Amino acid sequence: MKLIWMGHSSFRLEIGGQVLLIDPWLTGNPVLPEARHDEAINGATHILLTHAHFDHAADVVGLAKRLGVPVVGQYDLMGFWGETEEIETVGFNKGGTVDLGGVKVSMVNAVHSSTFATPDGPRTGGSECGYMIAAEDKTIYVSGDTDIMADMDWMGDYYKPDIGILCAGGHFTMDMAMATYAARRFFDFATVIPCHYKTFPLLEQSAQVLIDGLPGVSVIEPKVMSAIVL
Question: How deeply is 71 buried, as exposed, middle or buried, from its count of CB atoms within 10 A (0-12, 13-18, 19+)?
């Protein structure tokens, strides 16, 4: 299993014979060099989307058309794009699980918002979510953009994820201290990888608080386009 950070909340996950692009934001991503865009998306089999904000969804429709792969995400937004953009989608909802060629993806709750811009102002794009991704005898929790929430209690107990990819930049999501609290109280992670940080000066720039707050857990500060073998 190999995980590659594309900056912000974008990841390339090579798992179970599939290549998942999670919230792939290329255009305007200030920390992902344009010269590495093709490398980041090469061989993708699916696009997995947590919500409709531009820093997660801006490139999704274009990539789906360019790569000829399905977009997997919340039912309402997938239905809208399937009709208006003529792309292949896999729409499901919280509590549901889909099988992507042997990689099982379960949708779980997140607490945020999910809109995209139109000429008539913001439009709701379904609802925000996170994912539990299971394959190769491991389960990965992708938090999406979220605050701490009580649902993390049952999610940790039910899915028992080994790896947490947690938003931790603050301002729009949990910050490092809150992500530390959530990981410690609700989960039993072997590995934690922070995201949604460093991108802009407004966000936290270091994961040291998370590292210091989770003794015994492997906290990995990802580097852009550098593979993490899990």
Answer: buried
